[in-house]
Amino acid sequence: MSSRVIRAWPIVVIGLLATAVTASCSASAQDEKARSVPPPAVDERPGQPSSEVAVFAGGCFWGVQAVFQHVKGVTAAVSGYAGGQERSAHYEMVGRGGTGHAESVRVTFDPRQISYGRLLQVFFSVAHDPTELNRQGPDVGPQYRSALFPATDEQARIAKAYIAQLNDARVFDRPIATTIEMARPFYDGEQYHQDFLERNRTHPYIVVNDLPKLRDLERLFPDLYRPAPVLVGR
After folding, report:
1. 60 is annotated as an active-site residue
2. Inter-residue contact 131 to 175 (CB < 8 Å)
3. Cβ-based neighbours of 139, under 8 Å, separated by 6 or more
4. Residue 100: how many CA atoms within 13 Å on its side-chain side?
5. What's the pLDDT tens digit per position in 128-178?
6. Which residues face 57 on adjacent strands?
7. Rounded to an integer, what is the distance from CA 232 to the centroid of its chain?
8. Helix, strand, coil shares of the chain as percentages rounded to 5?
9. 206-to-2, 6, 15, 64, 115 alpha-carbon distances in Å
10. What digits encode the pLDDT tens for the residues 87-133?
11. SS3 per residue for 126-176
């Protein structure tokens, strides 16, 4: 049974499940400690519009969404799916791992306040471990891959340059596994996945795997962190 399955369990079972999940995930959470990465040498040119969209995939979308919801300049962050077809953009199907989709987050942001490059810096630093291939911590499969879905050629150019920059500088102990996948539509996820961290802060998966990401965001990016998140269900 996946550690992230959402069902109504008896209280005793919930308690046992929480203990098991916490024990099994603790080692993975330690492996995914955030690290400080340099800002991108290549970034957006001046004169950007007031709103831009970017799609990020970095494992379970609960934590990735929560991280970007706490970043200044982000105006919306929606959990969903990218990489596959519309007919298979459903949680039960994506979870089987054969749809081509990755759990993803569509981030709408104001490039006058924060650039795409700076969002990439947050993504590679605290949102996930970009060196893990087809997994993140306790979640295994291509649906949890690290991927970027550029909305424009400019975003693709910046992403490719930044990955090369980080690899050349050997910022990580292993090569970055993040893929850049062009022309892949994004499909909104189910409502019960939206704002999941904010609505379930005591969920054992959230406590072990995702709340540390918010603490790392505040610690490593104090100039970007905002305590009140921008939520889907406002």
Report:
1. yes
2. yes
3. 2, 3, 4, 59, 60
4. 13
5. 999 999 999 999 999 999 999 999 999 999 999 999 999 999 999 999 999
6. 147
7. 16
8. 40, 15, 45
9. 14, 13, 15, 11, 28
10. 999 999 999 999 999 999 999 999 999 999 999 999 999 999 999 99
11. HHCCCCCCCEECCEECHHHCEEEECCCHHHHHHHHHHHHHHHHCCCCCCCC
Catalytic residue among 60, 107, 166, 208: 60
Q: CA 89 from chain center: how many Å?
A: 17
Q: How far is residue 132's CA from residue 161's CA, in Å, rounded to a whole number?
A: 20
Q: Answer whether 45's CB lies under 8 Å from 99's CB.
A: no
**Which residue reads 């109504």 in tokens?**
8
Domains with residue ranges and CATH for the chain: 11-220 (3.30.1060.10)
By the 8 A CB rule, do 119 and 70 touch? no
pLDDT computed for residue 47 by the predictor? 73
pTM over 0.70: yes
**pLDDT at residue 15, rounded to an integer:** 40
In single-letter form, the type of residue at position 90 comes to H
